[in-house]
Amino acid sequence: MDAFLEANVGLPSSTPTLKPTITSSPTVTPSPTSTPSASLRSINGYVKGEGFKAEIEGTNYSASSDFKGLFEINGITPSLTEFTLKISKPGFLTRNINVKIPSDRLSLSISGPNSPIGLMEGDMNNNQVINMEDVIIIAKVFSLTSSHTLYNAAADFNNDGIINMSDIIMLAKNFGKTYLDYQ
Fold first, then answer.
1. Which residues, 6+ apart, have CB-to-CB distance to 62 below 8 Å?
2. Which spans does this entry mark as compositional bias, Low complexity (predicted)?
């Protein structure tokens, strides 16, 4: 009778009909993982003095030397293995050093505290030569102390707070030299 009612009246039968439900098992698909990147590199060294800028030419990597003369450039990308390290400070001849970090090393020290890198005093106008132009610049501020408004710290090579004969002698020792004299 259930079939009769269902066919003629549209009422559902009291006998439940089972319909199988098909469920699929989740499939695990491996996703590619990135290869761990090589570790970042660093370079450090010592210069004779504080406040020198060490920079990797053509990049934004740089550091300043501390009161001990130590500079340290960290976070260098692994692909940068050969470069020019430029060391500079106002009043000094800029020095360029060709550097190669071996592929099996993450860090490189180019100088130590007992053998710091030296720069030549006297390049007041930063034209990479110590000449009469530099003598004239330092002569204009000769005998001025750090409290004077015209004092030029770049001319006080020994950082004693006064531009005096000690500074002139330092310039005179390097007179006529250029950046090529570092070679």
1. 53, 54, 55, 56, 73
2. 20-37
**Tens of pLDDT, residues 50-59:** 999 999 999 9
Domains of the chain: 38-119 (2.60.40.1120), 125-183 (1.10.1330.10)
Query: What distance in Å separates the CA atoms of residue 41 and residue 101, rounded to the nearest whole number?
Result: 9
Taking each helix axis from N to C terminus, what angle separates 165-173 and 132-140, rounded to the nearest 10 degrees? Answer: 170
For residues 77 and 40, the answer to whether their CB atoms sit within 8 Å is yes
Distance between terminal CA atoms of the chain?
111
DSSP line for 134-166: HHHHHHHTTT-BTTSTT--GGG-TT-SSB--HH
Do residues 121 and 174 touch, judged by C-beta distance below 8 A?
yes
This prediction has a pTM of: 0.75
- Give the type of residue at 123: D
Both tokens assigned to 63: 């550091």
